[in-house]
Every structure is written in structure tokens, then in C-alpha cells.
Amino acid sequence: MDKKLRTVVWLLYAALLQVILFCTTKALSPTFWITYIFIWVACLSVLFVKRMSIEQEKYLRISFIVLEVIYLLIQIPIGVVFSLGANVISYKTAILVNVLILVVFWILMAGSLYGSSHIQNVEGRQENHQTKL
To answer: Which end of the chain is more exposed for a tag (fewer CB within 10 A), N or C?
Structure first.
């Protein structure tokens, strides 16, 4: 996908999320706003992941963008549930669940970055030690 098309798709996706969140909410309580912020963190992290270099793209055959999509697929339904139950669900529960999901995502990303760089280092050493026939 070229850069302009990717940007348009991302903007349409962000707009759709806004419509879904504001249409499903019962009240604009602190629980709703906490969930809203964490969904935006998930959306903006897509932009961060896309800027990573191609060499670091895969570790154990899982690309960073796949990890990001999984994070979004988990975060959005949880956001809708918290949006629907904004009057009933405590803001502490919203913070706890959203931070837990975000930390797990960061751990997976950091592990993937470390594993990818380690694999590149090993491959670089192997290339230096091989002789050509």
C-alpha cells in the first residue's frame, strides 16, 4: 500500500472508532474517557510500528504490524464494553484492564525487537565466518 492510501485508511478507521465509541456510550464518565484515551494510544501506536525499519520487521515469523492488529482487536471490544457500561464499571477497573493490555503489548514488542536484533547479530557473525568457494 502506498503512503497516501495507508493514511486515508488510518483516518477512516479512526473516524469509525469515534462514531462507535460515542454512539455506544451511556454517559461521558471517567471510565469512558480512560477507555477513549487508551484506544487512541492503540491507534497512534500503529503509526509508530509502521516507522520501524524493514530489518526489524519480523521475529519468529510474526511482524510488528500483526502484533499491533492483535492489540487493536483486543483493545477495541474492551473499549466498547467499557463504553457501554460507563455508569456501572469503576474507573479503577478501566485503568487496570487497559494498562495491563498495554503493558503486555509493550512486552511483546520489546521482546520482538530484542529477538530480531539478536538474530541479526548472529546472522552477521555467520556471514563473516563463511568462506566462499
So the answer is: C
What percentage of the chain's residues is helix, strand, coil (to nearest 5)? 80, 5, 15
Q: Look at the pTM and tell me if it is higher than 0.85.
A: no
Query: pLDDT tens-digit profile of 87-131?
Result: 888 889 989 999 999 898 888 877 777 666 666 666 666 666 665
Q: Concatenated DSSP letters for 69-115?
A: HHHHHHHHHHHHHHHHTTTTS-HHHHHHHHHHHHHHHHHHHHHHHHH
Instruction: Classify each residue of 61-97 as buried b or exposed e, where b means 16 or more C-beta atoms within 10 Å of its C-beta.
Output: eeebeebbeebbeebbebbbebbebbeebebeebbeb
